[in-house]
Amino acid sequence: xxxxxxxxxxxxxxxxxxxxxxxxxxxxxxxxxxxxxxxxxxxxxxxxxxxxxxxxxxxxxxxxxxxxxxxxxxxxxxxxxxxxxxxxxxxxxxxxxxxxxxxxxxxxxxxxxxxxxxxxxxxxxxxxxxxxxxxxxxxxxxxxxxxxxxxxxxxxxxxxxxxxxxxxxxxxxxxxxxxxxxxxxxxxxxxxxxxxxxxxxxxxxxxxxxxxxxxxxxxxxxxxxxxxxxxxxxxxxxxxxxxxxxxxxxxxxxxxxxxxxxxxxxxxxxxxxxxxxxxxxx
Length: 282
Ligand SMILES: O=C(O)CCC(=O)C(=O)O
Prior knowledge:
CATH architecture: Sandwich
Bound molecules: 2-oxoglutaric acid
Radius of gyration: 19 Å
Distance between the termini: 25 Å
Number of helices: 10
CATH superfamily: q2cbj1_9rhob like domain
């Protein structure tokens, strides 16, 4: 795990719109996820579907104990709270293996440029705290063959536009190409312009996206299913407010949402984070 401290990361994130947690997951954990993928696809695909559904959504409801580490990573949640305050909720966990594409077809293209859900087109250079963040992890080294992640650094604070439909799938003149390692997590601001790259490796390109938004917003994953509710009950038994909040259960939301805002937000966040920690029973 990278030794960067929270403040260093925060200033990097504010500047560039992302930060990388190196080695967030080890080989054993990643292998366990990969081993389960085919079966999750099978369960995720309706009987009458013409093709398997490769994009596994609500992965946590299918495999709660296997997938929980992908959403409840303490280093990433500590940082997310630094960025958005103690309001972090899971919007969606997507687990997917992108199939390989013919090289001739993919040559010189990117997947598609976009900002993420709840993002916006910046209209000034100031840093605005995100309403949502994406924690993206790849389960193999992102070589040129597997398809690196591309970002336009600072595009969460600059009105970087994509001029035409055709430009959506072309490399960007200001892009930075991130050839991250297996198990690294790229944590992005929702307004950072980014794109994947087609996979031409001949093998599946495993990836997951843990998308966090601000508690109170709607979530794409349904957290009311029996498996996720078992996690919530376990969290309740320990009074683990942060874990319960991930699934939309936040007993402190009313006073914190209506806190009068007479002191800097970070000061109030620190106090609330300390309260949440103190409330946790061992
Ligand atoms: O496939 C990739 O590398 C990028 C994924 C992505 O753009 C996203 O999760 O929003």
